[in-house]
Amino acid sequence: MSAILALSIVIAIERDWDYDAVKIMMNEPDENFPKRNYKWPWFLLVAVLVFAALAVVWVWVAAHREEQERDFNAQISTGAK
Length: 81
Prior knowledge:
Elements: H1 2-14, H2 19-25, H3 40-79
């Protein structure tokens, strides 16, 4: 594919075409068109960040509960002696 593109550029230069012809052959976007502003990547980024934050909070709460259960069991075993 790149060989065909290089060959077409060489042919365009040899035929003394202007830069616009080479640009059309390379399928480059024209500067006159407005730049696309996609919104879905931002929604995806927010969703990933919210998921990561909720996962951290969930693991922290689970670890805190487990620590409380271990402390409670340790107090009962020392008080039974």
